[in-house]
């Protein structure tokens, strides 16, 4: 346990190691400013003991000026110190944030499906955000307090040991209430935070589009308002309690604060009267003990602060130490692409190791051909496509591209070789141009237009308010499902990937959109290895190979006509899935014509 803590502390210190020069400067500034702080009480002493009794006005003037000078100087030093601590804190935060983000990018898909998004966001933002506070309020505060306590105590002992001991004897009276109030305050703050989280969770849930829909369609608005008001009321009570506690705490501290000088003036006054101490020393003493009490009080609570800080770093390190499930071998070569042949060799896979989903699948997707995956929902079609891009690794067997195991090549080269068109097209909140260029950052405008033309979306984009500069995505210009799909197709055409994975949309498009998407698919699949999760009759009809999947096994394979004539699962699926489409828009007929023409 102690060893673990030592390792943790060393690691935290390691984060600050690159900034040791600045840290040293901060330490120096703290020491200098703390020594300067002792100057004022000493000046006061000289004023009272010498300048005033001796009527030495020039000395008085010099001392008064020195007082102002000291204040200005320590102000300047403190400013420099704040600059440095902020710099160190922000630098360390920047390092950690960047490292964490880079690490998250390495994590496998499974990590994101298994972790709540809020959790990841909170570690990368809130936890790392706590580091600045740690630097400015914990680390530098502790050091400042230590220096202040030791210098002040030293000079007090030097001036009058007996009075110093009286001062220290009063400490418990001061420290106990401070610590007690601190504990209560921390508890209250925690409750307040929890309540605030409750209220925001409620807001997020009920004021989202789907939440509002639910509330409205069930006529529950009034209940929701009551629920919100209740949560909000709890917060109100807590906040009042917190404010009052702060006030009571300050009043008590101030009262105790008055005790100390009173006692010092009493004992010091006697000493002055008896001639064992000068008046100036007593006044200086009272000023000095102010410098002693607060830092000493804080140092007594330092353990809690350190524990909090360590817990924060523990959470950060925990994420940095996550081992990415899918990583490339050290020194792995880039994928040497030839034609883009994809081969599955007895591949088995399950999301949970004890629950096999794909069982010893073997097939070859040939270059320039379409391999269509067909099967009931949940058969494992999407999962197969995940294994090609190595979003997951197979449990046994091998996935090979041009005879190279996907596990033996770099992830980047694998990503470059495979283009994916998914059902849900994700677009960044950015211009259409930038979204398309994401596929190939060095693409020229002309190449972008060409890809968009091939995907049947160029005309549509040109008609948008600002053409290719129209902002789309999350909160941008709304596009229809078919349009988004065509943009996604254009993106993959632009990428020039040798292997295309196509997850056709299940939701029906109107026949005009449908025809455009079909026209876009032609240039997408042309000359490439295409693996399609087929939901369109046209796709299965064009496919050179259809794999019929059921419960993670290939139960049938072949051409559409043969398979259909064969009857069985395939014929059933085609009738179920495509029967209506065939009737609705005569897609089949359109294709027959196309085929004849080709
Ligand atoms: P299909 O594309 O044929 O409809 P999938 O490959 O999407 O089938 O899913 C196959 C099975 O794997 C389903 O039962 C599904 O619930 C399960 N599954 C899919 N994704 C995950 C995941 N990330 N974690 C665990 N199980 C999953």
Q: Which labels suit this protein?
A:
598 residues; 22 helices; elongated; 2 domains; 10% strand; alpha/beta; binds adenosine-5'-diphosphate; Rossmann fold
Q: Per CATH, which architecture of the largest domain?
A: Up-down Bundle
Specify the overall morphology. elongated
Bound molecules: adenosine-5'-diphosphate
The helicity comes to: 55-70%
DSSP strand (E) fraction? 5-15%
Largest sheet: 6 strands, mixed
Distance between the termini: 74 Å
Strand element count: 12
> What's the CATH class of the largest domain, please?
Mainly Alpha
CATH level 4 superfamily of the largest domain: ABC transporter type 1, transmembrane domain
Summarize model confidence as the mean pLDDT: 87
How is the topology of this model organized?
Layout: H1 2-16, H2 20-51, H3 57-106, H4 109-114, H5 117-159, H6 161-169, H7 171-206, H8 209-217, H9 221-274, H10 279-300, H11 302-320, E1 342-349, E2 358-365, E3 370-374, H12 381-388, E4 396-401, E5 404-405, H13 411-417, E6 418-421, E7 430-431, H14 432-437, H15 445-454, H16 458-462, E8 471-472, H17 481-495, E9 499-503, H18 511-525, E10 529-533, H19 537-542, E11 545-550, E12 553-558, H20 560-566, H21 568-585, H22 587-597
Parallel strand pairs: 3-10, 3-11, 6-9, 9-10
Antiparallel strand pairs: 1-2, 1-4, 4-5, 7-8, 11-12
The structure holds adenosine-5'-diphosphate.
Adenosine-5'-diphosphate (ADP) binds at residues 113, 351, 357, 375, 377-383.
């Amino acid at each position: 346990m102690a060893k673990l803590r030592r390792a943790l502390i060393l690691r935290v210190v390691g984060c600050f190691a690159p900034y040791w020069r600045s840290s040293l400067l901060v330490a120096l500034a703290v020491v200098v400013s703390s020594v300067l702080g002792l100057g004022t009480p000493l000046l006061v002493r000289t004023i009272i003991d010498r300048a005033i009794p001796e009527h030495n006005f020039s000395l008085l003037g010099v001392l008064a000026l020195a007082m102002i000078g000291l204040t200005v100087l320590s102000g300047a030093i403190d400013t420099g110190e704040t600059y440095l601590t902020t710099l160190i804190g922000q630098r360390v935060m920047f390092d950690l944030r960047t490292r964490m983000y880079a690490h998250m990018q390495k994590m496998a898909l499974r990590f994101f499906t298994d972790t709540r998004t809020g959790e990841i966001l909170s570690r990368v933002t809130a936890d790392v955000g706590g580091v600045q506070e740690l630097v400015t309020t914990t680390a530098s505060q502790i050091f400042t307090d230590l220096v202040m306590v030791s210098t002040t105590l030293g000079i007090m002992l030097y001036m009058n040991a007996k009075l110093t001991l009286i001062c220290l004897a009063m400490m418990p009276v001061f420290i106990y209430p401070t610590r007690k109030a601190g504990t209560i305050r921390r508890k209250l703050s925690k409750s307040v935070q929890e309540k605030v989280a409750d209220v925001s969770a409620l807001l997020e849930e009920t004021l989202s589009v789907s939440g509002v829909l639910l509330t409205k369609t069930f006529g529950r608005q009034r209940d929701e308002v009551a629920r919100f008001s209740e949560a909000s009321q709890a917060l109100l009570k807590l906040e009042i309690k917190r404010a009052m506690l702060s006030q009571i705490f300050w009043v008590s501290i101030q009262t105790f604060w008055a005790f100390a000088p009173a006692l010092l003036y009493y004992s010091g006054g006697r000493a002055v009267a008896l001639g064992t101490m000068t008046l100036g020393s007593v006044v200086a003493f009272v000023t000095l003990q102010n410098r002693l009490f607060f830092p000493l009080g804080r140092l007594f609570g330092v353990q809690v602060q350190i524990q909090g800080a360590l817990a924060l770093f523990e959470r950060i390190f925990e994420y940095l130490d996550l081992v990415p499930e899918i990583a490339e071998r050290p020194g792995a070569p880039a994928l040497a692409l030839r034609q883009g042949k994809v081969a599955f060799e007895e591949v088995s896979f399950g999301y949970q190791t004890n629950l096999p989903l794909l069982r010893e699948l073997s097939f070859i997707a040939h270059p320039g051909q379409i391999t269509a995956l067909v099967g009931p929902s949940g058969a494992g079609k999407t999962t197969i496509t995940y294994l090609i891009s190595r979003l997951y690794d197979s449990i046994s067997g091998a996935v090979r591209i041009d005879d190279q195991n996907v596990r033996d090549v770099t992830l980047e080269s694998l990503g470059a070789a495979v283009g994916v068109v998914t059902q849900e097209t994700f677009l960044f909140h950015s211009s259409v141009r930038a979204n398309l260029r994401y596929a190939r950052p060095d693409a020229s405008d002309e190449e972008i237009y060409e890809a968009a033309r091939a995907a049947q979306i160029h005309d549509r984009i040109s008609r948008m308010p600002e053409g290719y500069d129209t902002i789309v995505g999350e909160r941008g210009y709304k596009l229809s499902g078919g349009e988004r799909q065509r943009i996604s197709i254009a993106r993959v055409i632009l990428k020039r990937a040798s292997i295309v994975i196509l997850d056709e949309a299940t939701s029906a498009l109107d026949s005009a959109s449908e025809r455009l998407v079909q026209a876009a698919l032609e240039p997408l699949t042309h000359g490439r290895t295409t693996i399609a999760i087929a939901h369109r009759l046209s796709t299965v009809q064009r496919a050179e190979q259809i794999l019929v999947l059921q419960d993670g096994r290939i139960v049938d394979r072949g051409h559409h006509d043969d398979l259909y004539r064969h009857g069985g699962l395939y014929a059933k699926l085609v009738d179920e899935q495509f029967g209506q489409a065939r009737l609705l828009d005569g897609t089949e007929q359109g294709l027959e014509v196309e085929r004849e023409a080709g």
